[in-house]
Amino acid sequence: MEKMLVVFLISCMLHLASAQLKVGFYNSTCPRAESIVRGIVQQRFNRDRSITAALLRMHFHDCFVRGCDASILIDSTRSKSSEKDAGPNLTVRGYDLIDAAKKALEAACPSIVSCADIITLATRDAVALAGGPKYAAPTGRRDGLVSDIADVNLPGPSLTVPEAFSFFKAKGLTLNDMVTLLGAHTVGVAHCGFFQDRLSNFQGTGQPDPTMDPGLAARLLRTCGTASRPVNRDPTVFLDQGTSFVVDNQFYNQTRFKKGILQIDQELALDKSTASIVSIFASNGIAFQQSFASAMIKLSKVEVLVGKAGEIRKNCRVFNPRKPTVLRPGL
Ligand code: HEM
Ligand SMILES: *[C@@H]1O[C@H](CO)[C@@H](O)[C@H](O)[C@H]1NC(C)=O
Ligand SMILES: *[C@@H]1O[C@H](CO)[C@@H](O)[C@H](O)[C@H]1NC(C)=O
Ligand SMILES: CC(=O)N[C@H]1CO[C@H](CO)[C@@H](O)[C@@H]1O
């Protein structure tokens, strides 16, 4: 009984928390906030279209570890390893863009716009620039006070659909949200190490993964080499072999032709719980775009800090210095 009450109260609090995010949260406190971020993303995108993939992955990794609180941005110190240094972070990119946006925002309105909102807004803008949906992103997130390598528990690329779904379900996301969000693999790259097992000796059979198109497997093998004889140093390949820089539904079409790169991507088209969603998105680009916009908004609300929780960091890579009035007993 007591337990149920606690669960009820916590779920009320979570509900309230997300209710405090608002579209245009900075309208009066920093009216140029969204246009400043958009300008910086546009500038970067003009010379490097891969920024869309970088930000999407950063946003996902941030939100799945302690909620969307910019904990992924914290640099490790000599005494403490932060989220950034965990294995699955591997090659999360785009930290410098967040720094540039923060610098411009601090100049325009000091200590107002959170790093967590910068990630959300920059991702939203980069998605739109790459041909994805344009959507209004609620803001008002606060930055977290904890970033610990031990908290990082992200899904791996060789999971089954039900295994992967357990991670999304724990964040309040549906199977439809998961299939939609994995559509982010319509842009960006993967290092060979994440799918090499599929190319020549799948599960010890001495054969490529039978769920991968043999022509594709042969091509990827030439790029990647084998685990014992790798070609140069861990090269990358496009996750969407069709339209690699465009946020569109081609990723789903590719998986229907056995051209998913990661095992989990291919599984989406094969598992009976997700195959029908994949075929809808593959044949209906507008349905995908609409679903992607709403799933991104849902992702951006996972376990956020609002109100007086957390802080507004001055520098996205370090926590603000503690106020001197806080005396800790024993120190
Ligand atoms: C079951 C869930 C997921 C798994 C197992 C997974 C796994 C991976 C792996 C292994 C890579 C390659 C990383 C590298 O080689 O550097 C990757 C890349 C990527 N992932 Fe995911 N991912 C998942 C969900 C998501 C979600 C929900 C998003 C965003 C909404 C996302 C966005 C991306 C993007 C954009 C890239 C390309 C990054 C780049 O080019 O720098 N992923 N993912
Ligand atoms: C901010 O302005 C936009 C555009 O006028 C409006 O849609 C939004 O509701 C406003 N938000 C707040 C919190 O005032
Ligand atoms: C779907 O992918 C296949 C295989 O790569 C390609 O031949 C076909 O043109 C694609 N269909 C659409 C509608 O883009
Ligand atoms: C960008 C970044 O901080 N990457 C780190 C990811 O984690 C590895 C260790 O697993 C570090 O070596 C990288 O520096």
Description:
- The protein has 331 residues and is mainly α.
- It has 2 domains: 136 residues, Orthogonal Bundle (Peroxidase, domain 1), CATH 1.10.520.10; 137 residues, Peroxidase, domain 2 (Orthogonal Bundle).
- Helix content is 43%, strand content 3%.
- The strands form 2 sheets. It has a two-stranded antiparallel sheet with strand order 1-2.
- It is globular, with a radius of gyration of 21 Å.
- It starts with a helix and ends in a 32-residue tail after the last helix.
- It binds protoporphyrin IX containing FE and 2-acetamido-2-deoxy-beta-D-glucopyranose (3 copies).
- Keywords: Calcium, Disulfide bond, Glycoprotein, Heme, Hydrogen peroxide, Iron, Metal-binding, Oxidoreductase, Peroxidase, Secreted, Signal.
